[in-house]
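Exercise 3.2. Students should predict the tertiary structure of the chain below and write it as structure tokens, then compare their answer with the key that follows.

Predict this chain's 3D structure.
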Amino acid sequence: MATARKRLTLDIDEDLQRRLKAAAALQGISMREFCEGALEDRLVQDPPDELQRAKLRREAVDAILARSKARVGGRKFPGNSADIIREERELRAEQIDNRI
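Answer key:
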């Protein structure tokens, strides 16, 4: 099955078009194939900012999980963490109310 393709139109100056045509011809491929290859190469070398940020976020999450696992040692704690947080907030609110 053929993959879906999208059309991209670029306006480039004549000199760049001549160099592109010559480079593609030297490799025995079409200008379209040359451009696709060049774009793929560039995206591998220099991923878009969003991809880079997503990778960094994933690495950060993995590092946090690894540290947490090392600290906890794989133990499971009883109870629901949301319930524990809610209880602690209620206790803190009571302490604040008692100070006033």
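Discussion points: The first helix runs from residue 14 to 27. Helices lie at 14-27, 31-45, 49-72, 81-99.
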